[in-house]
């Protein structure tokens, strides 16, 4: 038998993790078998690494199979083993499995640590059960478990996610007096919660506090506040935030530019909207079909069909191909403006490019005809379709 050193065990664990990170989950077991073949017997660290990787890359059932194999060879699981399984169950929102794992830990005289509770709290919040999450936090305090800053961040974030922004604010103020330092994600969630409840001024104050605390706001922070300003018709304030971020050297994503362009289109500032949308297409953004369709939709929604077609031409010239949803959006826009002849021509172009079975587009066309009172035309179109679904009812 080969003499196994700690370094060799660590190396084996690293191989397993690297295989997982490379997306080669099927090779995890091979790494374990290869280790045994050269005399490197797996220990609890090896199996914990396997369980964590399987839960992350394959699924919770694969993690359970490793746990079973681990017990069969006489290696007792520890708190890290169960934390990985609980995290895997949480990833799929399997609350009852999380609770069963907790009970199993206690039956084996394995005491849950702060990470066990953090994961359980996170699961409760994800499932919209903030009261149960807070009871888990109280259990931490009763058992005198040393609390990590991540625990407080989970509490603040979870309360905001579930609409308890005011409670989260009170908790944050209380914890800061005891030296708790909120993370950027905590500020972002609080700002989002305040914006969602219409408290734009408070969100701006938190944005200032975030900067004063040494955190650097990211695109999510600014976009959240900017969107809030637009929602409550504080257009100039929203544009000011957009400009401020650009001046500070931050990079906005496509979503941010689309948000600004949408506001400009809604308020009739077509020329400015064209500048922003044109910038997206020509400035080297990694524009995928989904983002492109969003821009086309914004134009069609505001009746700017000519600009939508110009954008389509520029994008296709640049190598971006339209998909069936692009055609459906254009046809819907044409129908809403009463351009049924052009909508029919768009349907024909769609069929010529291989999207003849696009039911969404056909449904949009028939729906538009019905709304305009062209029932005979709608029925003729319906009868001419090769493929129909339950939605296509003139």
From TrEMBL:
It comes from the Eukaryota. PPR repeats lie at residues 43-77, 78-112, 113-147, 148-182, 183-217, 218-252, 288-322, 323-357, 358-392. PROSITE patterns: PPR. Keywords: Repeat. Belongs to the PPR family. P subfamily. PANTHER family: MITOCHONDRIAL GROUP I INTRON SPLICING FACTOR CCM1 (PTHR46128), PENTACOTRIPEPTIDE-REPEAT REGION OF PRORP DOMAIN-CONTAINING PROTEIN (PTHR46128:SF96). This is Pentatricopeptide repeat-containing protein. It comes from Anisodus tanguticus. The lineage of its organism: Eukaryota, Viridiplantae, Streptophyta, Embryophyta, Tracheophyta.
